Protein backbone atom coordinates (compact mmCIF):
# COMPACT_ATOMS: atom_id res chain seq x y z
CA UNK A 1 0.00 0.00 0.00
CA UNK A 2 1.50 3.34 -1.04
CA UNK A 3 1.44 6.13 1.54
CA UNK A 4 0.18 8.57 -1.09
CA UNK A 5 -2.78 6.30 -1.78
CA UNK A 6 -4.41 6.62 1.62
CA UNK A 7 -7.62 8.32 0.51
CA UNK A 8 -9.91 9.45 3.32
CA UNK A 9 -12.83 7.50 1.90
CA UNK A 10 -10.86 4.30 1.38
CA UNK A 11 -12.03 0.95 2.72
CA UNK A 12 -9.56 -1.46 4.29
CA UNK A 13 -10.16 -5.16 4.76
CA UNK A 14 -7.14 -5.55 7.04
CA UNK A 15 -7.89 -2.69 9.44
CA UNK A 16 -8.64 -3.20 13.11
CA UNK A 17 -12.17 -4.44 13.78
CA UNK A 18 -14.56 -1.52 13.51
CA UNK A 19 -12.14 0.59 11.50
CA UNK A 20 -12.71 -1.00 8.10
CA UNK A 21 -14.29 2.20 6.79
CA UNK A 22 -12.08 5.27 6.74
CA UNK A 23 -14.92 7.72 6.18
CA UNK A 24 -14.74 8.86 9.81
CA UNK A 25 -11.89 10.32 11.79
CA UNK A 26 -9.60 7.28 11.94
CA UNK A 27 -7.83 5.24 9.30
CA UNK A 28 -5.33 2.40 9.63
CA UNK A 29 -2.30 2.37 7.36
CA UNK A 30 0.18 -0.38 6.57
CA UNK A 31 3.11 -0.22 4.18
CA UNK A 32 5.93 -2.61 3.20
CA UNK A 33 8.39 0.03 4.36
CA UNK A 34 7.24 -0.66 7.94
CA UNK A 35 6.66 -4.40 7.90
CA UNK A 36 4.47 -5.52 10.78
CA UNK A 37 3.58 -1.98 11.86
CA UNK A 38 0.10 -0.46 11.62
CA UNK A 39 -0.41 3.30 11.85
CA UNK A 40 -3.76 4.48 13.18
CA UNK A 41 -4.28 8.04 11.98
CA UNK A 42 -6.46 10.14 14.27
CA UNK A 43 -7.69 13.71 14.31
CA UNK A 44 -6.75 14.83 17.80
CA UNK A 45 -8.93 17.25 19.73
CA UNK A 46 -5.99 18.59 21.72
CA UNK A 47 -2.24 18.78 21.33
CA UNK A 48 -1.03 20.20 24.64
CA UNK A 49 -1.04 17.83 27.59
CA UNK A 50 -0.96 19.24 31.10
CA UNK A 51 1.24 17.13 33.39
CA UNK A 52 0.89 17.56 37.17
CA UNK A 53 4.03 17.28 39.26
CA UNK A 54 4.60 13.86 40.79
CA UNK A 55 5.39 15.38 44.20
CA UNK A 56 1.87 16.69 44.72
CA UNK A 57 3.11 20.28 44.89
CA UNK A 58 0.41 21.56 42.58
CA UNK A 59 2.89 22.63 39.93
CA UNK A 60 2.62 21.28 36.43
CA UNK A 61 4.27 21.15 33.03
CA UNK A 62 3.17 20.77 29.43
CA UNK A 63 4.02 18.11 26.87
CA UNK A 64 3.12 17.25 23.28
CA UNK A 65 3.05 13.70 21.90
CA UNK A 66 2.48 13.60 18.13
CA UNK A 67 2.63 9.79 18.31
CA UNK A 68 1.40 7.15 20.76
CA UNK A 69 3.36 3.93 20.77
CA UNK A 70 6.89 3.83 19.41
CA UNK A 71 8.64 1.75 16.76
CA UNK A 72 11.97 2.17 18.58
CA UNK A 73 10.77 -0.89 20.53
CA UNK A 74 13.01 -0.29 23.55
CA UNK A 75 12.44 -3.24 25.86
CA UNK A 76 12.78 -1.12 29.00
CA UNK A 77 10.57 1.80 27.86
CA UNK A 78 8.67 3.29 30.80
CA UNK A 79 5.89 4.51 28.49
CA UNK A 80 4.68 1.02 27.57
CA UNK A 81 1.79 1.01 30.09
CA UNK A 82 0.31 4.15 28.48
CA UNK A 83 -0.64 2.07 25.45
CA UNK A 84 -3.11 0.09 27.53
CA UNK A 85 -5.28 3.24 27.67
CA UNK A 86 -5.90 2.60 23.98
CA UNK A 87 -6.91 -1.02 24.60
CA UNK A 88 -3.54 -2.24 23.30
CA UNK A 89 -0.96 -4.23 25.25
CA UNK A 90 2.31 -2.66 26.33
CA UNK A 91 4.48 -5.13 24.45
CA UNK A 92 4.24 -5.91 20.75
CA UNK A 93 1.31 -3.52 20.34
CA UNK A 94 3.34 -0.63 21.75
CA UNK A 95 6.01 -1.34 19.14
CA UNK A 96 3.71 -2.07 16.20
CA UNK A 97 0.37 -0.27 16.70
CA UNK A 98 1.28 3.41 16.36
CA UNK A 99 -1.28 6.17 16.80
CA UNK A 100 -0.53 9.23 14.67
CA UNK A 101 -2.14 12.60 15.48
CA UNK A 102 -2.13 13.82 11.91
CA UNK A 103 -3.57 17.25 12.71
CA UNK A 104 -1.43 17.92 15.77
CA UNK A 105 0.22 21.08 14.39
CA UNK A 106 -3.09 22.69 13.40
CA UNK A 107 -4.66 21.89 16.77
CA UNK A 108 -1.56 23.19 18.54
CA UNK A 109 -1.74 26.53 16.72
CA UNK A 110 -5.33 26.99 17.87
CA UNK A 111 -4.42 26.17 21.46
CA UNK A 112 -1.43 28.51 21.46
CA UNK A 113 -3.59 31.39 20.20
CA UNK A 114 -5.86 31.23 23.24
CA UNK A 115 -5.54 34.26 25.54
CA UNK A 116 -5.15 31.88 28.48
CA UNK A 117 -1.95 30.33 27.11
CA UNK A 118 0.93 31.58 29.28
CA UNK A 119 3.82 30.43 27.07
CA UNK A 120 4.90 27.84 29.61
CA UNK A 121 7.82 25.69 28.33
CA UNK A 122 6.62 22.61 26.43
CA UNK A 123 8.47 19.28 26.36
CA UNK A 124 8.43 16.81 23.46
CA UNK A 125 9.75 13.26 23.61
CA UNK A 126 9.17 12.63 27.29
CA UNK A 127 6.65 9.86 26.65
CA UNK A 128 7.02 8.57 23.08
CA UNK A 129 9.58 9.72 20.54
CA UNK A 130 8.54 12.51 18.14
CA UNK A 131 11.34 11.50 15.76
CA UNK A 132 10.61 7.80 15.51
CA UNK A 133 10.81 6.41 11.98
CA UNK A 134 7.25 7.33 10.99
CA UNK A 135 8.13 11.02 11.30
CA UNK A 136 10.03 10.67 8.05
CA UNK A 137 6.68 10.10 6.33
CA UNK A 138 4.21 12.09 8.40
CA UNK A 139 6.47 15.14 8.96
CA UNK A 140 4.52 16.39 11.97
CA UNK A 141 7.41 18.03 13.79
CA UNK A 142 8.13 20.97 11.44
CA UNK A 143 4.59 22.25 11.97
CA UNK A 144 4.87 21.74 15.73
CA UNK A 145 8.21 23.57 15.90
CA UNK A 146 6.93 26.50 13.84
CA UNK A 147 3.76 26.79 15.92
CA UNK A 148 5.71 26.90 19.18
CA UNK A 149 8.30 29.38 17.91
CA UNK A 150 5.74 31.69 16.32
CA UNK A 151 3.74 31.80 19.57
CA UNK A 152 6.80 32.61 21.67
CA UNK A 153 6.65 29.31 23.55
CA UNK A 154 9.97 27.80 24.77
CA UNK A 155 10.32 24.09 24.10
CA UNK A 156 12.57 21.09 24.54
CA UNK A 157 12.97 17.92 22.51
CA UNK A 158 14.30 14.59 23.79
CA UNK A 159 14.78 11.94 21.12
CA UNK A 160 16.63 8.83 19.99
CA UNK A 161 15.82 9.67 16.39
CA UNK A 162 18.42 10.95 13.94
CA UNK A 163 15.54 12.36 11.87
CA UNK A 164 15.99 15.45 14.02
CA UNK A 165 18.89 16.40 11.72
CA UNK A 166 16.35 17.17 8.99
CA UNK A 167 14.92 19.94 11.18
CA UNK A 168 18.15 21.52 12.43
CA UNK A 169 17.78 24.61 10.20
CA UNK A 170 14.23 25.05 11.50
CA UNK A 171 15.40 24.62 15.10
CA UNK A 172 18.17 27.19 14.59
CA UNK A 173 15.55 29.62 13.29
CA UNK A 174 13.24 28.85 16.23
CA UNK A 175 16.08 29.41 18.71
CA UNK A 176 16.30 33.02 17.53
CA UNK A 177 12.82 33.58 18.95
CA UNK A 178 12.50 31.25 21.94
CA UNK A 179 14.70 29.10 24.19
CA UNK A 180 15.19 25.69 22.56
CA UNK A 181 16.71 22.77 24.47
CA UNK A 182 17.65 19.56 22.68
CA UNK A 183 18.77 16.22 24.06
CA UNK A 184 19.70 12.89 22.51
CA UNK A 185 18.92 9.73 24.46
CA UNK A 186 21.85 7.31 24.17
CA UNK A 187 21.84 4.66 26.86
CA UNK A 188 23.80 1.77 25.33
CA UNK A 189 27.26 2.00 23.74
CA UNK A 190 27.71 -1.67 22.89
CA UNK A 191 26.39 -2.18 19.35
CA UNK A 192 25.21 -5.76 19.82
CA UNK A 193 23.45 -4.99 23.09
CA UNK A 194 21.92 -1.83 21.65
CA UNK A 195 20.25 -3.81 18.90
CA UNK A 196 18.95 -6.30 21.45
CA UNK A 197 17.29 -3.82 23.80
CA UNK A 198 16.51 -1.01 21.30
CA UNK A 199 15.99 -2.86 18.01
CA UNK A 200 14.16 -0.02 16.24
CA UNK A 201 16.56 2.78 17.09
CA UNK A 202 19.36 4.34 15.04
CA UNK A 203 22.84 3.19 15.96
CA UNK A 204 24.74 4.76 18.81
CA UNK A 205 27.25 6.18 16.32
CA UNK A 206 24.47 7.79 14.27
CA UNK A 207 22.98 9.41 17.37
CA UNK A 208 26.37 10.75 18.47
CA UNK A 209 26.83 12.16 14.96
CA UNK A 210 23.48 13.91 15.41
CA UNK A 211 24.72 15.44 18.66
CA UNK A 212 27.74 16.76 16.77
CA UNK A 213 25.56 18.14 13.97
CA UNK A 214 23.37 19.97 16.49
CA UNK A 215 26.38 21.45 18.25
CA UNK A 216 27.99 22.46 14.95
CA UNK A 217 24.78 24.37 14.20
CA UNK A 218 25.30 26.40 17.35
CA UNK A 219 22.60 24.75 19.48
CA UNK A 220 23.03 23.04 22.84
CA UNK A 221 22.49 19.29 23.05
CA UNK A 222 22.55 17.18 26.18
CA UNK A 223 22.96 13.40 26.26
CA UNK A 224 20.60 11.30 28.36
CA UNK A 225 22.54 8.26 29.58
CA UNK A 226 19.27 6.68 30.64
CA UNK A 227 18.67 4.07 31.76
CA UNK A 228 21.84 2.60 33.14
CA UNK A 229 21.13 -1.14 33.26
CA UNK A 230 22.38 -2.76 36.48
CA UNK A 231 25.01 -5.45 35.90
CA UNK A 232 24.88 -4.76 32.15
CA UNK A 233 25.88 -1.17 31.36
CA UNK A 234 27.09 -0.01 34.78
CA UNK A 235 30.69 -1.17 34.43
CA UNK A 236 33.43 1.45 34.56
CA UNK A 237 34.44 0.53 31.02
CA UNK A 238 30.97 1.07 29.59
CA UNK A 239 30.32 4.29 31.52
CA UNK A 240 33.73 5.71 30.62
CA UNK A 241 33.19 4.87 26.95
CA UNK A 242 29.70 6.39 27.03
CA UNK A 243 30.64 9.65 28.71
CA UNK A 244 33.86 9.95 26.73
CA UNK A 245 32.06 9.55 23.42
CA UNK A 246 29.35 11.99 24.47
CA UNK A 247 32.03 14.53 25.37
CA UNK A 248 33.83 13.95 22.07
CA UNK A 249 30.58 14.59 20.21
CA UNK A 250 30.32 17.96 21.94
CA UNK A 251 27.47 17.18 24.34
CA UNK A 252 26.53 20.19 26.46
CA UNK A 253 25.91 18.01 29.52
CA UNK A 254 25.17 14.43 30.52
CA UNK A 255 22.24 13.16 32.57
CA UNK A 256 21.95 9.62 33.87
CA UNK A 257 19.72 7.43 36.01
CA UNK A 258 19.39 3.75 36.80
CA UNK A 259 16.73 1.58 35.20
CA UNK A 260 13.28 1.86 36.73
CA UNK A 261 10.60 -0.70 36.05
CA UNK A 262 6.95 0.13 36.42
CA UNK A 263 4.57 -2.80 36.94
CA UNK A 264 3.42 -2.64 33.32
CA UNK A 265 7.01 -2.77 32.06
CA UNK A 266 8.38 -5.48 34.34
CA UNK A 267 6.88 -8.46 32.44
CA UNK A 268 8.38 -7.36 29.12
CA UNK A 269 11.78 -6.65 30.62
CA UNK A 270 11.60 -9.95 32.50
CA UNK A 271 10.88 -11.86 29.29
CA UNK A 272 13.90 -10.26 27.59
CA UNK A 273 16.10 -10.99 30.60
CA UNK A 274 15.10 -14.66 30.67
CA UNK A 275 15.85 -15.02 26.95
CA UNK A 276 19.19 -13.23 26.87
CA UNK A 277 20.62 -12.93 30.41
CA UNK A 278 19.16 -15.70 32.58
CA UNK A 279 22.19 -15.32 34.85
CA UNK A 280 20.81 -11.94 35.98
CA UNK A 281 17.23 -12.97 36.65
CA UNK A 282 17.65 -13.48 40.40
CA UNK A 283 19.65 -10.28 40.84
CA UNK A 284 16.95 -8.24 39.11
CA UNK A 285 14.28 -10.02 41.08
CA UNK A 286 16.02 -8.96 44.29
CA UNK A 287 16.32 -5.36 43.15
CA UNK A 288 12.90 -4.82 41.57
CA UNK A 289 10.49 -7.37 43.04
CA UNK A 290 8.73 -4.79 45.22
CA UNK A 291 10.38 -1.70 43.79
CA UNK A 292 9.85 0.50 40.76
CA UNK A 293 13.21 2.21 41.21
CA UNK A 294 16.63 0.76 41.80
CA UNK A 295 17.32 0.63 45.54
CA UNK A 296 18.73 3.76 47.13
CA UNK A 297 22.08 2.20 47.96
CA UNK A 298 22.52 1.10 44.35
CA UNK A 299 21.77 4.63 43.14
CA UNK A 300 24.35 5.97 45.60
CA UNK A 301 26.87 3.43 44.35
CA UNK A 302 26.17 4.44 40.74
CA UNK A 303 26.60 8.14 41.57
CA UNK A 304 29.97 7.40 43.19
CA UNK A 305 31.02 5.55 40.04
CA UNK A 306 29.81 8.17 37.57
CA UNK A 307 31.08 11.35 39.28
CA UNK A 308 34.82 10.81 38.71
CA UNK A 309 34.18 9.73 35.12
CA UNK A 310 32.28 12.95 34.45
CA UNK A 311 35.15 14.94 35.98
CA UNK A 312 37.73 13.06 33.93
CA UNK A 313 35.96 14.03 30.71
CA UNK A 314 35.17 17.58 31.81
CA UNK A 315 31.43 16.98 31.54
CA UNK A 316 28.78 18.79 33.55
CA UNK A 317 25.76 17.02 34.97
CA UNK A 318 22.54 18.48 33.64
CA UNK A 319 19.29 18.81 35.53
CA UNK A 320 16.07 17.03 34.69
CA UNK A 321 12.67 18.64 35.08
CA UNK A 322 10.95 16.45 37.72
CA UNK A 323 7.53 17.11 36.21
CA UNK A 324 7.96 16.39 32.51
CA UNK A 325 11.24 14.46 32.50
CA UNK A 326 12.73 16.93 30.00
CA UNK A 327 16.21 18.32 30.44
CA UNK A 328 15.05 21.72 31.62
CA UNK A 329 17.15 24.58 30.34
CA UNK A 330 20.72 23.91 29.39
CA UNK A 331 22.23 26.69 31.53
CA UNK A 332 21.06 24.95 34.70
CA UNK A 333 23.95 22.60 35.46
CA UNK A 334 25.36 21.26 38.67
CA UNK A 335 29.03 20.70 39.25
CA UNK A 336 30.33 17.51 37.67
CA UNK A 337 31.30 16.32 41.12
CA UNK A 338 27.81 16.76 42.53
CA UNK A 339 25.42 13.90 43.08
CA UNK A 340 22.37 13.79 40.82
CA UNK A 341 19.17 15.04 42.38
CA UNK A 342 16.60 12.35 43.04
CA UNK A 343 13.53 13.26 40.97
CA UNK A 344 10.48 14.36 42.87
CA UNK A 345 8.21 11.46 43.64
CA UNK A 346 10.94 8.90 43.06
CA UNK A 347 10.86 7.67 46.62
CA UNK A 348 13.87 6.63 48.63
CA UNK A 349 14.20 3.06 47.48
CA UNK A 350 15.09 0.19 49.77
CA UNK A 351 18.00 0.49 52.12
CA UNK A 352 19.33 -2.99 51.52
CA UNK A 353 22.39 -4.77 52.78
CA UNK A 354 25.19 -5.24 50.27
CA UNK A 355 26.81 -8.67 49.92
CA UNK A 356 30.58 -8.53 49.97
CA UNK A 357 31.99 -7.70 46.55
CA UNK A 358 28.57 -7.15 45.01
CA UNK A 359 26.88 -4.05 43.68
CA UNK A 360 24.51 -2.54 46.22
CA UNK A 361 20.83 -3.21 46.09
CA UNK A 362 20.88 -6.93 45.40
CA UNK A 363 19.70 -8.32 48.71
CA UNK A 364 16.13 -9.62 48.77
CA UNK A 365 13.74 -6.68 48.67
CA UNK A 366 11.19 -6.20 51.42
CA UNK A 367 7.76 -4.60 51.51
CA UNK A 368 9.04 -2.06 53.99
CA UNK A 369 11.44 -0.70 51.41
CA UNK A 370 9.05 -0.61 48.48
CA UNK A 371 9.05 2.57 46.46
CA UNK A 372 5.81 4.42 46.06
CA UNK A 373 4.85 7.26 43.73
CA UNK A 374 4.80 7.55 39.96
CA UNK A 375 7.83 8.15 37.80
CA UNK A 376 8.59 11.73 36.78
CA UNK A 377 9.82 10.40 33.44
CA UNK A 378 6.38 9.48 32.23
CA UNK A 379 3.27 11.36 31.33
CA UNK A 380 1.24 11.49 34.52
CA UNK A 381 -2.10 12.59 33.10
CA UNK A 382 -4.09 9.57 32.07
CA UNK A 383 -6.52 10.61 29.35
CA UNK A 384 -10.16 10.21 30.27
CA UNK A 385 -10.89 9.24 26.68
CA UNK A 386 -8.24 7.88 24.35
CA UNK A 387 -7.78 9.35 20.85
CA UNK A 388 -9.07 6.15 19.27
CA UNK A 389 -12.16 6.14 21.47
CA UNK A 390 -12.82 9.82 20.78
CA UNK A 391 -12.61 9.25 17.06
CA UNK A 392 -14.64 6.06 17.08
CA UNK A 393 -16.85 5.51 20.16
CA UNK A 394 -17.48 1.89 19.15
CA UNK A 395 -13.78 1.08 18.93
CA UNK A 396 -13.52 -0.90 22.16
CA UNK A 397 -16.69 -2.89 21.58
CA UNK A 398 -15.56 -3.87 18.10
CA UNK A 399 -12.06 -4.96 19.05
CA UNK A 400 -11.46 -8.65 18.56
CA UNK A 401 -10.69 -10.46 21.84
CA UNK A 402 -6.99 -10.14 22.56
CA UNK A 403 -4.97 -13.06 23.90
CA UNK A 404 -2.27 -11.81 26.24
CA UNK A 405 1.14 -13.41 25.72
CA UNK A 406 2.44 -15.80 28.33
CA UNK A 407 5.01 -13.79 30.26
CA UNK A 408 7.26 -14.68 33.20
CA UNK A 409 6.07 -13.56 36.61
CA UNK A 410 9.46 -12.94 38.12
CA UNK A 411 8.37 -9.55 39.39
Question: What does the model show?
Answer:
The chain has 411 residues and is of the alpha/beta class. 28% of the residues lie in helices and 14% in strands. Strands 3-4-7-8-9-10-11 form a seven-stranded mixed sheet. Strands 1-2-6-5 form a four-stranded mixed sheet. Helix 8 (236-248) links the parallel strand 10 (221-228) and strand 11.
Cα-atom radius of gyration:
21 Å
- Please provide the count of β strands: 13
Shape: globular
Query: What does the largest sheet look like?
Result: 7 strands, mixed
Q: In angstroms, what separates the terminal alpha carbons?
A: 41 Å
Q: Can you tell me the residue ranges where pLDDT is under 50 for at least 5 consecutive residues?
A: 1-25, 329-357, 362-405
SS strand fraction: 5-15%
Roughly how much helix do the residues carry, as a percent range?
A: 25-40%
Helix tally equals 13
Query: Order of strands side by side in the largest beta sheet?
Result: 3-4-7-8-9-10-11
* Average pLDDT figure: 77
Which secondary-structure class do the elements indicate?
alpha/beta
Question: Topology as H/E string?
Answer: EEEEEHEHEHHEHEHHEHEHHHEEHH
Question: What attributes does this structure have?
Answer:
411 residues, alpha/beta, seven-stranded mixed sheet, 28% helix, 14% strand, globular, disordered N terminus
